[in-house]
Amino acid sequence: MLLRLDFSIDTPIYQQIRNEIVRGIAAGDLPPGQQLPPIRTLAEDCGVNMMTVSKAYGLLKQEGYIETDRRAGTIVSPRKPAALPEQTRAALELAVAEAKAAGASLEELLALCRRAYGG
């Protein structure tokens, strides 16, 4: 699994791993039921501590994006998360407020949303 991580920015690495996996799910690159690498393997591939990957997987599991099964390992959840995670909702509200304060029109924001949805 190829993740784009930037060690020079302030965003914690576990959060970057979480974000990259969510992007992969949203893009369809990680379909429901897709097996994710074991923690140790992903940590070695990314050059990070196993606890960093474990924290990212824990967050993804808590948010409903992934599931862990003793036999199947860690997989992308076949079910959609029950609700938009509160952290995501807050970040989206802030991003919309910043765009509005910068003078972006509703049409510009909707165009960005459509592009993110692939439409």
Give a structural overview.
54% of the residues lie in helices and 7% in strands. The model has no long low-confidence stretch (mean pLDDT 92). It is built from 5 helices and 2 strands; from the N terminus they run H-H-H-E-E-H-H. It starts with 12 loop residues before the first helix and ends with a helix. A two-stranded antiparallel sheet has the order 1-2. The protein folds into 2 domains: 13-76, Arc Repressor Mutant, subunit A; 86-116, no CATH class. With 119 residues, it is mostly helical. The radius of gyration is 16 Å and the shape is globular. Helix 2 packs across helix 3 (50-63).
What would a concise description of this structure say?
This protein is mostly helical and 119 residues long. It is 54% helix and 7% strand.
Proportion of strand residues: 5-15%
Poorly predicted spans? none
What letter string, H or E per element, gives the SSE order? HHHEEHH
Question: Would you state the CATH class of the largest domain?
Answer: Mainly Alpha
- Helix fraction, binned, reads 40-55%
Q: At the fourth CATH level, what is the homologous superfamily of the largest domain? A: Winged helix-like DNA-binding domain superfamily/Winged helix DNA-binding domain
Task: Write the CATH fold name of the largest domain.
Answer: Arc Repressor Mutant, subunit A
Q: Mind telling me which CATH architecture of the largest domain this is?
A: Orthogonal Bundle
The DSSP helix count reads: 5
Rounded Rg: 16 Å
| Largest β-sheet summary | 2 strands, antiparallel
Distance between the termini: 26 Å
Mean pLDDT: 92
Main-sheet strand order equals: 1-2
The oligomerization state is: single chain
